[in-house]
Specification:
Number of strands: 38
Radius of gyration: 26 Å
Helix content: under 10%
CATH topology: Maltoporin, Chain A
Structural class: mainly beta
Length: 735
């Protein structure tokens, strides 16, 4: 990686919440101490929005974008500043400061993601600010804050939400303080029957929705200068989702159609995490916090992956196994021939399957993940220096059990799946591989105040060892990589809430258990901000140079390879502009826009954010995967968000609009392409205090207000729609 002698970076506060004042960012640091662009979404805003998926929650944060897959946010695909969002592999995701990916080093794909519906807050760092939160330090980091124990007295909350397609959401927590002991228990349950319509319903499972349950328990014991806390979290999910979308021809006829061949597809998830925390004050200006953590995640995605067909449908002829990736989904199989054409027509129910010679194979995508380790953070203030030193020792693994495990079905004329055989009952797992990683990381960040300047210098070092074991062949392959990253920033305080800033940082992403070189980058930022009593504005320009862009290549990713692992995409760059403007009350002064101050107490908040970016490959590393001048897959060029509202202390309403730009599903800009669209959401709520229900609030929300349908996803196995209009209403009580 390039080493730069002169390092300059930024310190900015980009706060997107109910208040514009500096808020807590990443474990208690003031946002004004963060080297780089930051954002915070607080508990009140999360509850008002009613959102349970991170993709919608992040819609307002400039520089952050998502690529929908199921329309529900179950499989999150989030990117920052031009990074490929697929499976959120380019972002460092934590909860309470602990790595959240089930195996961040062994396999970065985020098949499990924090339950955003019960988060107390969400923190976002971008650019140089993320240097202390590795290992994925190129684009940024997201930290979820789980429900905190009460510091005194008790706190409780209960909400019940109802909506379209049997949508049901229950959220409850209660915590109390008894002397030096405090605790909290939280449960969050969501269910939904789904908005897609299963083809040929007779004999098929017509549920296209999900069931998700999450439970949290924390207990803390506080001493005069220290505390101990134990946290336990359990999450389970059953979702009736499939890799199979639609051909474009079928999508044009009925966007929400599901082929009957996918009626048995289902994912089961189970996640368990435990954290023990010990924090102490070493002196009036020094603290030490240590965390022991362990997590285990198991998922089994049962899905159709292969079809055995007769040549031209002639019984007794030659047969051929056709993978779903071999089919041309961009049209109605027009580019396919012979075997692929027949397979496509069977999937789309244009031809009946020959029961004596043809079959459908449904694979069982069973994976076990785990991680454990400890994390230490020491902070001290020495004169003008605010110094934070961090060390983490981490181990994780991914164990694949699915090779050779499958179920065989026939597909009747009414597109009903009927199982004829299975090879997992007696034989069990016969193949697969397991990956193990051990990683030790060290970071040091020094925030230096000098006159009107605040300079932050940062360093992070990662040592990673991988082992890949192939169960069938017995082959064991080992890899290692080590990297030191530097960051620095300076911000000049101009007075009256105005400041300018500039930043530099080095980015790194581990390669996983593969021979690919780690991803390395140089990241630059420059900007201006203005923070007033009633408004906030920030404008940031950013540029990233990749020495070696890494991509997670798989059949789901659409990179033209059925393999599953990191591959090098060579040199690339991202250049962009972020803008945010927020006003607490557009008509705060009587003379503003000629509107008189009526004394009604009504406030009119406004929020505008925008991202313009160019994310392109600089070289052609493989003509079928990554071409010079082509856009990085799934990266939009334009992102816009606008919200306007009216509120008092007793009621509120808001309408928001999010622009989703079109994206390519490959790194050659010639593959399938999504559609661009504006999506509007509406929310409203009213306090019930005046009618005797103290602490209660009734709310009414509409996602996709105008029921706009567009081609939102173009993955390898067909195109998919966004979520349709969804009406929800409910009551919440604080106690």
């Amino acid at each position: 990686m390039k080493k730069t002698a002169i390092l300059i970076a930024l310190l900015s506060t980009n706060v997107i919440a109910d208040e514009l004042a500096p808020l807590s960012i990443f474990g208690g640091q003031s946002a004004s101490e963060i080297a780089g662009s930051s954002a915070y979404i607080g508990d009140d805003e999360l509850k008002k929005s009613g959102y349970t998926d991170t993709e919608r929650i992040m819609g307002r944060v400039p520089g952050v974008f998502s690529q929908t897959e199921d329309g529900l946010g179950l499989r999150t695909n989030i990117g920052m500043r031009g990074t490929n969002p697929h499976r959120t592999t380019k972002i460092n995701v934590t909860e309470d400061g602990i790595l959240q990916g089930p195996a961040v080093y062994s396999n970065g794909s985020m098949y499990f993601y924090p339950d955003a519906g019960d988060a107390e807050g969400v923190e976002v760092l971008k650019g140089a600010a993320a240097i202390g939160n590795g290992p994925r330090t190129t684009a940024g980091a997201i930290n979820y804050i789980s429900r905190t124990v009460p510091t005194s007295g008790s706190k409780g909350y209960l909400s019940q939400t109802f909506g379209d397609e049997s949508y049901l959401r229950n959220h409850f927590y209660y915590g109390d303080t008894i002397g030096n002991l405090s605790y909290i228990f939280e449960t969050h349950k969501t269910s939904y029957d789904g908005h897609k319509k299963m083809q040929a319903e007779a004999g098929n499972d017509t549920n296209t929705g999900f069931r998700k349950n999450s439970d949290l328990f924390k207990i803390r014991y506080t001493m005069p200068s220290s505390y101990m806390e134990l946290s336990s979290q359990n999450t389970s999910e059953t979702s009736h989702e499939s890799y199979i979308g639609q051909t474009r021809t079928d999508f044009a006829a009925d966007e929400y159609r599901r082929y009957g061949i996918s009626s048995k597809d289902k994912m089961d998830n189970d996640y368990h995490r435990y954290i023990f925390t010990y924090g102490m004050d070493l002196s009036p200006t020094s603290t030490l916090v240590g965390k022991l953590y362990k997590a285990k995640y198991s998922r089994n995605w049962k899905k159709v992956g292969q079809i055995t067909v007769d040549e031209d449908g002639v019984e007794g002829g030659d047969t051929q196994d056709v993978d779903l990736a071999d089919i041309d989904w961009s049209t109605n199989c027009a580019a396919d021939s012979t075997y692929e054409l027949r397979a496509c027509n069977i999937i789309t129910n244009n031809y009946a399957m020959d029961l004596t010679g043809e079959s459908v194979k449904r694979s069982l995508g069973h994976r076990d993940y785990g991680m454990y380790g400890y994390d230490l953070r020491y902070n001290t203030i020495m004169g003008a220096h605010d110094l934070t030193i961090g060390f983490r020792s981490h181990r994780d693994y991914r164990d694949r059990h699915d090779n050779g495990i499958s179920e065989t079905y026939t597909l009747g004329s009414n597109n009903t799946m009927v199982m004829t055989a299975s090879d997992y009952v007696t034989s069990g797992p016969t193949g697969g591989n397991d990956d193990h990683a051990s990683a030790d990381s060290f970071s040091i960040i020094d925030r230096i105040s000098h006159g009107n300047f605040t300079t932050t210098l940062g360093l992070r070092h990662e040592d990673v060892d991988y082992t890949d074991h192939h169960k069938t062949t017995g082959a064991v392959t080992s890899y290692s990589n080590s990297e030191t990253m530097l960051a620095a920033s300076t911000v000049y305080n101009m007075g009256n809430g105005k400041s300018t800033f500039i930043a530099y940082s080095q980015g790194y992403m581990p390669s996983g258990a593969s021979s690919a070189q780690p991803e390395e980058s140089d990241n630059y930022e420059i900007g201006y901000r203005s923070n007033g009593a009633n408004s906030y504005m920030e404008l940031i320009g950013f540029h990233t140079d990749y020495d070696n862009l890494n991509e997670q290549c798989s059949i789901a990713q659409g990179c033209g390879d059925s393999s599953n692992g990191q591959v090098s995409a060579g040199e690339a760059h991202v250049t962009g502009l972020e803008f945010i403007y927020k006003v607490n009350n557009m008509f705060a002064a009587p003379q503003m826009k000629g509107v008189a101050n009526t004394g009604s107490g009504i406030r009119y908040p406004l929020l505008i954010s925008a991202t313009l970016q160019e994310a392109e490959h600089d070289v052609t590393t493989n003509a079928s995967k990554y071409a010079e001048g082509a856009r990085i897959a799934y990266t939009p060029e334009e992102i816009y968000y606008i919200s306007v509202g009216a509120e008092t202390n007793n009621w509120d309403m808001q309408i928001s609009a999010k622009y989703n730009d079109d994206v390519y599903n490959t790194g050659v800009s010639t593959g399938d392409k999504t559609e661009s669209a504006w999506i509007y959401d509406f929310r409203s709520g009213m306090s019930l205090d005046s009618i005797g229900y103290t602490g209660a609030r009734a709310y009414f929300n509409v996602d996709n207000l105008f029921d706009k349908t567009y081609l939102a996803s173009a993955h390898e196995y067909g195109v998919r729609p966004n979520k349709p209009q969804t009406v929800m209403t409910g009551i919440a009580v604080n106690f």
